């Protein structure tokens, strides 16, 4: 029975001894209207007879922690929150639901309501009211909501808020939270130093060491407790751990943001979260740092926000880790996010924080190329890796994200990625920067910036080719490099359904830079393979090609037996057809595509020349335009 071992006298005495007047109290004292005795938190203990008399009057026995509290202090003054005073034993009474809240809460019950919902609806008529002074608020002990120790849950209902009441599992839990709030309200004030603050600050120091040594879960426990008491730096340090451990959401870092030492690491993460949470089309929210800052930090934050917004932000710390970040970005920007992470992971011991309260290289997460490399699993690996020269065991590496080869294109769609339709081009021995000259549309200015995660897979947009001839089919492709030395261009969401009658493979003109391979696959509505096209060219000439439609095959040139669809698909069921064809292509040429970089849309883009030819004389071309409007 943990509750019964709690030393209420020691707890309340420490609280009273640590109490110092707040601003309002100090003003009252200065005006002479009150004395320190008037502002005492504690009251004289209630005698056993007083407690028993109150229980007899109310017809119940109080829960253990509340009964023991009365025996240590017969009431209590709370100088923070909406409850001002807890009454003495002779002052408490049954609530009786004078506001008729039972009817309101019971009306809201449905067949989907939880057990807790049902308990709350019945609480109002059976609760014991503890407060005698408040801001239209009620402290209610519920004898119907009990635990194995016989404790009653305590609810605080703020009548002015329109919100559900706050629930505490016991009276002791409520008082401990109020004690923490008392500390938190005074933490930033001068002169608030006592044994509790000194112990908590020592825990913060220990947490810093634990976090940098890779023992981040121990650090999190220490910082969570210190944050509840409002200890300086605890919140900002804890949020850093949560950023990497949870991999999402909005993050504020408390007063750490006001320190210019941390601007380059913390503000970019906040800016990225701010932009992510501002939905397109909605009125933008003001970028709030969450703490008062000087003009220098505010100006720097505005500049960082602009860089993150336009995609120009680059995480570039000093020293060896900064050089590793640059090397990793070069790998990731062309698709090899697994190699990029290996570089970052190997360099983590060399990372050095710009100040004592930074626990990890958070700026990585705001970099448009490196941010997607640090997935939640990798964030946890980062946290578990010793940094800043600290000793400690290195965790086992998390598995690579990208499956080898091309077979993943035939997998069940993930992340809303339309893997049922894709077209790709590879050029052997070419650099990605050469693709605009090889396959770019007329007047192509070169590669453009990545589209970003929000537009991933559907980055071609609406109306992009309004000035083009209706038969034209220019692909917006993501460009990168494979580990085997091929430049690739991938359109993961072709606006056309499949290679049609006017299709002309771009393999021939792409092969001016080396051997070229083109793939185009499209699945039927039932999930089967509808169309699969392969063409291979070299030195500007197509060597061979085939287009598989259902079971019909159109060939041109001598297709090697290792690629011939009739041979590859012999005895293969419908469900495995696409996978087998992809396996044949990847084995023949050593081709691959980086799934993670494509899904996260971190690769440069290129608009190609049309994959369709113009209709010849006597050929018809039909198209339909659908416009949506009011």
Polypeptide structure, described:
- The chain is elongated.
- The chain has 20 helices and 16 strands.
- Helix 5 packs antiparallel against helix 6 (115-126), helix 9 packs across helix 10 (234-246) and helix 11 (263-277) crosses helix 12 (295-310).
- 34% of the residues lie in helices and 15% in strands.
- A hairpin with a 2-residue loop joins strand 13 and strand 14 (541-549).
- It has helices at 8-18, 23-31, 48-58, 64-72, 101-107, 115-126, 171-186, 195-212, 216-228, 234-246, 263-277, 295-310, 319-333, 337-347, 376-383, 435-439, 507-510, 565-568, 577-589, 595-600; strands at residues 76-77, 83-86, 93-94, 128-129, 131-134, 137-146, 152-158, 166-168, 421-428, 474-481, 486-491, 516-523, 529-538, 541-549, 552-556, 605-610.
- An eight-stranded antiparallel β-sheet has the order 15-14-13-12-9-11-10-16.
- It has 630 residues and is an alpha+beta fold.
Structure summary:
With 630 residues, the protein is of the alpha+beta class. Helix content is 34%, strand content 15%.
């Amino acid at each position: 029975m943990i509750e019964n071992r709690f030393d209420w006298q020691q707890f309340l005495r420490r609280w009273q001894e640590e109490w110092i007047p707040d601003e309002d109290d100090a003003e009252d004292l200065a005006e002479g209207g009150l004395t320190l005795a008037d502002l005492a938190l504690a009251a004289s203990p209630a005698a056993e007879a007083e407690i028993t008399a109150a229980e007899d009057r109310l017809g119940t026995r109080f829960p253990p922690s509340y009964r023991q509290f009365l025996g240590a202090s017969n009431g209590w003054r709370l100088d923070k929150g909406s409850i001002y005073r807890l009454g003495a034993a002779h002052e408490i009474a049954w609530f009786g639901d004078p506001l008729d809240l039972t009817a309101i809460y019971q009306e809201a019950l449905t067949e989907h309501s939880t057990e807790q919902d049902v308990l709350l609806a019945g609480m109002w008529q059976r609760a014991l009211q503890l407060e005698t002074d408040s801001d239209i608020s009620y402290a209610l002990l519920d004898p119907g909501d009990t635990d194995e120790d016989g404790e009653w849950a305590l609810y605080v209902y703020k009548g002015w808020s329109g919100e559900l009441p706050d629930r505490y599992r016991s009276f002791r839990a409520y008082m401990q939270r109020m004690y923490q709030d008392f500390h938190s309200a005074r933490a930033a004030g001068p002169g608030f130093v006592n044994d509790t603050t000194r112990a908590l600050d020592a825990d913060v120091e220990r947490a810093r060491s634990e976090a940098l040594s890779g023992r981040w879960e121990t650090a999190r426990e220490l910082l969570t407790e210190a944050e509840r008491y409002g200890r300086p730096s605890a919140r900002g340090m804890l949020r850093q751990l949560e950023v990497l451990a949870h991999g999402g959401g909005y993050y504020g870092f408390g007063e750490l943001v006001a320190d210019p030492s941390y601007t380059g690491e913390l503000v970019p993460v906040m800016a990225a979260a701010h932009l992510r949470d501002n939905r397109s089309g909605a009125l933008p929210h003001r970028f709030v740092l969450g703490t008062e800052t000087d003009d220098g930090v505010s100006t720097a934050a505005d500049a960082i926000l602009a860089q993150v917004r336009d995609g120009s932000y680059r995480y570039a710390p000093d020293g060896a880790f900064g050089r590793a970040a640059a090397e990793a970005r070069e790998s990731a920007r062309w698709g090899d996010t697994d190699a990029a992470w290996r570089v970052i992971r190997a360099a983590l011991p060399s990372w050095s924080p710009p100040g004592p309260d930074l626990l990890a290289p958070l700026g990585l997460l705001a970099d448009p190329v490196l941010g997607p490399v640090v997935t939640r699993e990798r964030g946890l690996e980062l946290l578990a890796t010793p940094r800043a020269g600290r000793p400690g065991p290195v965790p086992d590496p998390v598995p690579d994200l990208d499956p080898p080869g091309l077979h993943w294109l035939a997998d069940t769609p993930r992340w809303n990625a339309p893997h049922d339709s894709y077209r790709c081009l590879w050029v052997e021995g070419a650099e990605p920067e050469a693709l605009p000259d090889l396959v770019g549309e007329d007047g192509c200015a070169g590669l453009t910036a990545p589209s970003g995660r929000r537009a991933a897979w559907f980055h071609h947009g609406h109306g992009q080719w309004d000035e083009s001839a209706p038969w034209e089919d220019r692909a917006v492709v993501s460009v990168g490099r494979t580990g085997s030395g091929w430049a690739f261009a991938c359109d993961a969401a072709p606006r056309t359904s499949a290679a049609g009658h006017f299709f002309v493979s771009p393999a021939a003109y792409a092969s001016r830079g080396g051997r070229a391979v083109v793939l185009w696959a499209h699945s039927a509505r039932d999930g089967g393979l509808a169309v699969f096209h392969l063409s291979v060219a070299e030195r500007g000439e197509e060597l061979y090609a085939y287009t598989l439609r259902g079971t019909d095959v159109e060939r041109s040139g001598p297709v090697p037996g290792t690629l011939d669809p009739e041979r590859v698909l012999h005895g293969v069921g419908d469900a495995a057809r696409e996978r087998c064809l992809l396996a044949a292509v990847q084995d023949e040429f050593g081709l691959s595509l980086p799934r993670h970089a494509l899904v996260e849309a971190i690769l440069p883009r290129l608009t190609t020349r049309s994959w369709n030819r113009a209709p010849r004389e006597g050929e018809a071309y039909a198209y339909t335009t659908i416009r949506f409007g009011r």
